[in-house]
Amino acid sequence: MKQKGTNFQKFYKGTEKKGAAKKEQLRQERKQYKKERKEFFDQKRAENRQAQETGTPSGKFAVTKTIARETPTGEMPLNKYLAHSGVCSRRDAADVVRSGKVKVNGQVVTEPGHKVTMKDDVRVGPKKVYPTKDLVYILLNKPKDYLTTTDDPQKRKTVLDLIQQATTERVYPVGRLDRNTSGVLLLTNDGDLAQKLTHPSNEVKKIYAVTLDKPLTKEHFDSILKGVHLEDGVANVDVLAYTDNADKTQIGVEIHSGRNRIVRRIFEHFHYDVRNLDRVMFAGLTKKNVNRGKWRFLTEKEVRDLKFFKKGKK
């Protein structure tokens, strides 16, 4: 196991540039910022012109970024059908089907692999669902105190409350962040992509910034790198680093496991309290230029990169 890797240097403050090199870095960052700002406003002006020409309202959320999807033909598994309908991810859809909440042509079906077509009447509860034609991809910088779910029986705040102005399509979170975990979260109605990004075999990388209640000792640091034995198996990290040599409570973790509360449980195993947990990267996506609680659409290039990423590279 590596302690610091090239993918993690941005979180390791001990390697900061100084002097002329740092000035040049700042100059390049300002140049890039001005370029991105110009492109952003050029795009907004073009969208407003298009809105005026088509008669679409030209407000802040007038233009929704979508990618057209081919209409499904032939048979498909019921859980895939639900995912394409924006109900939830394919893995979660399997649980919905098994729970007995889904009817096909008036009959309850509890087998996720049950084959259906566009001609079938598929309902989740009383509501009829059908695959959406437009695919939406939204990156949210999730704040604390929001649940990563599409619905909460207790009516607590969910991440959908933060993006309700973004699209009229039914989207759902890809993976989960705990209520008290902040950071990068992808929401989409693309069931195939959600399946790819959450399947353990694809080893999608995540990077977290962790704040502990006390300094992480060298002994525990080394133990974590060797693998931590938890109740549901060994938890391995890919990269571990102190992000501030002067403050050993600040830790960076790169991991590909998607197990529930895995980062928190690793540190809790050694009796540390995780005071703050922020996901700074997911599958190559970062929260750069997205303030806490805000969102943006993915670019077409980002969508292509996600669809064609190589195992372990994101």
Automatic annotation (TrEMBL):
Gene3D superfamilies with a match to the protein in the record: Alpha-L RNA-binding motif, Pseudouridine synthase I, catalytic domain, N-terminal subdomain, RNA-binding S4 domain
Pfam family membership, one: S4
Annotated InterPro entries: PsdUridine_s_RsuA/RluB/E/F_cat, PsdUridine_synth_cat_dom_sf, PsdUridine_synth_RsuA/RluA, PsdUridine_synth_RsuA/RluB/E/F, PsdUridine_synth_RsuA/RluB_CS, RsuA_PseudoU_synthase, S4_RNA-bd, S4_RNA-bd_sf
GO terms (BP aspect): enzyme-directed rRNA pseudouridine synthesis
Enzyme class: isomerase
Coiled-coil intervals, chain numbering: none
Keywords assigned by UniProt, alphabetized: Isomerase, RNA-binding
Official protein name in the record: Pseudouridine synthase
Organism, scientific name: Flavisolibacter tropicus
